[in-house]
Amino acid sequence: MTESDCLLCKISRGEIRVSKIIETDAVMGVINTIEAYSRGHAVFFAKRHAASFHEVEDWELAEIVRCIKKVVAALELENYNILQNNGALAGQTVFHAHFHLIPKWTDGDGLRYDRSFQSDIDHREISRRLRERL
Ligand SMILES: [Zn+2]
Question: Which end of the chain has the least Cβ crowding within 10 Å, N or C?
């Protein structure tokens, strides 16, 4: 995947017609008209190509969050999910980091997910490793 054939880079360059709802110098928010989980499902991303969350600059992330909060306020949302997937195993299908804002208007629309939890995880080991590395 190069920037020239990246869907979100093409959108940010104005090469694909989208329903743009918010834009700054570095960030864009568009309505997801292709794979919407609910009315108002929007996608936010930095215009600069970065495949994953950890590759997006901190200031770009801050600007994305500001844009998401503005849209949440404009829609007067009380119930919504913010979804951000990284890597194919995690469900990322467009490899330009982006955030989904998914309104939950009713119990039947919006994001639905499996609430099954793993009980066989050694949390002490991962906690110890993280404390050593951070
Ligand atoms: Zn891109």
Answer: C
Q: Which of 41, 49, 96, 98 is catalytic?
A: 98
Predicted model pTM = 0.93
Single out the residue of 86, 80, 2, 69 nearest to residue 29, CA to CA. Answer: 69
CA of 132 to the centre of ligand 1 (A): 34
Q: What is the dihedral of CA 51, 84, 104, 63, to 10 degrees?
A: -70
Q: Distance, CA 85 to ligand 1 centroid (Å)?
A: 15
The secondary structure of the chain as a DSSP string is: --GGG-HHHHHHTT-S--EEEEE-SSEEEEE--SS-SSTT-EEEEESS--SSGGGS-HHHHHHHHHHHHHHHHHHT-SSEEEE---SGGGT--SSS--EEEEE--STTSS------------HHHHHHHHHHH-
Give the percent of the chain with pLDDT over 70: 99
